[in-house]
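In the lab's daily routine, each protein ends up as an entry in a very long ledger. A line of letters takes care of the sequence, but it says nothing directly about the fold. The three-dimensional part falls to structure tokens, numbers that each stand for a local backbone shape. The outcome of that step, for a single protein, is printed below.
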Amino acid sequence: MTSVGARLNEERNRLDMSMTSFAAIGGVQLNAQRQYERDERYPRANYFEAIASAGADVLYVLIGVRSAMDSDGLTNEERLMMTSYRCLRVDSQGVFRHLLGSLTRKPVAVPGC
């Protein structure tokens, strides 16, 4: 099984973020981020809260089990799009599916809709 530091590094790379930008999101210095990823130090709870808001799967980092949302490998942008889609009225969701189908030249059907 991989370490917390290795999983933290994996999440940072999955989100396509530099170590510097990830450290800034977590509210720590670059040196601290390096130490976290090398398992030389462990972050505090507020660091995990901050990186979670940027899309990191903190459950995975801590215990090695992907959360339900992240098991699909969604990027931050995809997650934001899904959240926005769910906020649309049903008729607007239909328009969006039609547009997406036109752009991809594939019909987009949603079971139960």
Notes: The mean pLDDT is 85. The two ends are 41 Å apart (CA to CA).
